[in-house]
Amino acid sequence: METEIQILQPNNIEELNELISVFEKVFEMGSFERPGQAHLQNLLNKENFFAVIAKTENKIIAGLTFYVLDQYYSVKPLAYIYDLAVLQEYQRKGVGKKLINFTNEHCRQKGFEEVFVQADKGDQYAIDFYRSTKPTEEEQVVHFYYSSVNENDTDRR
Predict the structure, then answer these.
(1) For labelling alongside 16, which of 23, 36, 150, 157 has CA 20 to 30 A away?
(2) CATH label of the domain that carries residue 49
């Protein structure tokens, strides 16, 4: 299986939509309402957002997204992997590791300080996967979330 890994460019809105469909399927996001195309195009245009895809036979089978975080402790930015998914029929074939390795190498070449990702404590599959990618460090962290959305706010477009 030949797998091509690439970073989406601003003119790749169709591929971003395909990647979001992969996320929807793998994460079982039944009630997900996708933002409008203008929002997604704006996201692709940003310098701090990256979408990395894996293609086989011209089909997107996996991908990840990451955000660039500038910091005040260092001039070197951080990369935060937000989502990573591989279609079920392609899992356990090294595709996810290829995405991680590609992203780590890209960030190393661009002078990033580090790449980091979180996995929920209850998601043992994700934890085992990330451990298999040989991270340089692992931390036990608790995240707290504060919603900024009003309960009646349904405008996500």
Answers:
(1) 150
(2) 3.40.630.30
| Residues 98-151 pLDDT 10s | 999 999 999 999 999 999 999 999 999 999 999 999 999 999 888 899 999 876
Count of domains for the chain = 1
What count of Cα atoms within 13 Å lies in the side-chain half-sphere of residue 31? 1
In a domain, 156, yes or no: no
Are the C-beta atoms of 62 and 53 separated by less than 8 Å? yes
CA distances to 23, 79, 98, 105 from 14, in Å: 14, 24, 22, 25
- Whether 95 is covered by a domain: the verdict is yes
- From residue 141, give the alpha-carbon distance in Å to each of 71, 119, 120: 19, 10, 10
- Summarised one tens digit per residue, pLDDT across range 84-93 is 999 999 999 9
